[in-house]
Amino acid sequence: MRIFFEKRKSYSAGAAVLTPVISFVVSLVLTAAILAAVGLNPANVYAAMFRGAFGSWRDFTETLVKAIPLILTSIGVATAFRLKFWNIGAEGQLVLGGIAASWVALFWSSWMPGPLLLPAAIIMGAVAGGIFAGIPALLKVKLKVDETLTTLMLNYAAIIAYDGIYSGPWRDPDGFGFPGTALFPAEAWLPRLSGRAHMGLVFALVIAALLWFAFYKTRWGFELQMIGNNKKAARVLGVNIGRNILIAIFISGAIAGIAGACEVTGIARRLQQGLSLGYGYTAIIIAWMSRLNPLVCVPVSILMAGLLVGGDSVQIMMGVPSAMGQVMQGMILFPMLAGSIFAEYRLKINIGGEVQA
Amino acid sequence: MIILITSIIAITLKAGTSLVFATIGEIYTEKSGILNLGIEGIMLMSAVLSFTVSYYTGSLFAAVLTAMVTGGVLSLLHAFLSITMRAQQVVSGLSITLFGTGMASFLGQTLGPESNSGYMIGLNAAKFKAVAIPGLSRIPMLGAVFNQDPLTYIVLLLLPIAWFFMFRTRHGLSLRAVGENPQTADAMGINVARTRYIYTVFGGIMAGIGGAHLSLSYTPGWTENITGGRGWIVIALVIFSLWNPSRAIWGAMLFGGINAVQFRLQASGAQIPAPILNMLPYLVTIGVLILITVWENRKSYTGSPDALATPYQREEK
Question: Which residues are CB-contacts of B292 (< 8 A; sequence separation ≥ 6)?
């Protein structure tokens, strides 16, 4: 008896949609096993997590607070992944965006008119993120340096720089001993919509829609897809691969930078600890789960945000370790990865020992 | 001066040991054609689990064994996803790292004793101590090489063995064939999938020992982010070694050396701001990567397996 995978004649859309759902269920089961192993009741934990994330409007806004940077970073990552450019650096690009926006908010107020301060902060955040992503992109295009490591190493560098900046040169002398910059001037505050959920949500949704349109309805999007799937064809068709990569990755980093800028001007309104929470890495999971579709990234991000917020709330209430949310995130990918094969292959069982060539 | 150099050599070797283990392992994995980006997660999981076992049993042997099993199991998962389920190796490896990072934190917060609120942080456990080789360890400067813990001695002996196996044995030839041209290897009767499974698991076991060294010797103990990105630096070191196990030592020495230098610079109160020093390993990794890549592009033989990270499917063209 043989069990093997046989390639399907055509891509199965049914499997592609069913796989994430089944995978999510499988991951819930696996995580439940872990919870039970440490003596917690999974049903209680899950119920409490759901209540904590979606139980009330107030809780939902908190979920949105986490969802906004996830949406932004994930659509940015999706942009890069479309070209098979493995941008692992979203975390660092977000942080750079936050640093740049803080720079504007803290130091440009002396010469820039008030109403322009906030837009400038967001724009500089985007530029900073874009340039930070552009470095590995340039290295890849000009020198063929693998981007997986360069983007990743820059993350570490960015976080070290960020930690050093807000606790060192930019530290608020009146800060009562807490490391962090001074509070931003009010003109640099990103308005909030409800609770702590801020205008970043609007940016996120608009950019997601724009990207979706660009990817699926324009020639540029098609060219990007080609660069990712079939470089030879792209070259033959005259697509300027290098320039497209640079532009697309700049955009990818810029969107992550916007996420950082919004976090800093919308939530804390100062540069302090708590900007680097691993969203850049979660974004990779989200982008992949959404099959790189920017619109799908939105609900998936909200789901992931719910996991994180729910995880936080059970930590406080039930003593579940704070790393719980992270474990669940990691758990989701395995069944998904295993299931991803079913879109292109079907499982066949061959009883009777028929000889296969 | 002599004392300074001796201590630098000592720190370098100690810091580099975990890197050499993991690098040798990943070289083997990549030579078979599989890219395992899960090393960071494997090292973290092995570090926390081996430390926990050491704490509760006092047996270093059991602890290292635990680390090996952890690494083996996690890399087996990666092998299964990448080889059998033909998932994208980059995403598969990344998910192991993400899972391993979260899970290691989780375990570090739950496996500890009641007295420490379940945390493994801040505890002391059995650890490796330096074993001085009589006589040799008294040599000025180089004597530091002979005053290391057992794992370091093992890894130094492993280097020539790993080289010999890969380049002078038939098994090593099969391994390299699978990584360069799986179709031809398959036609010659080599079981491509099985080969890849074996060496991916081997790589994971090595990474596991590397992780154990961190928590049982280098740090020692368990803290969040005990690896500090070493798992990623290993990926760069594999390239730096040009996929040749005997060269793994140089990259590890480089990074061990940076650690040592960071240490000394900070201790001596030099004016270099701490963040710049802390960034050094990561920036140097990028620099190394650039240099090697540029150099690679000029050479014809570089040692990188042609079929790296490309899934092999027998029945397809």
Answer: B239, B240, B242
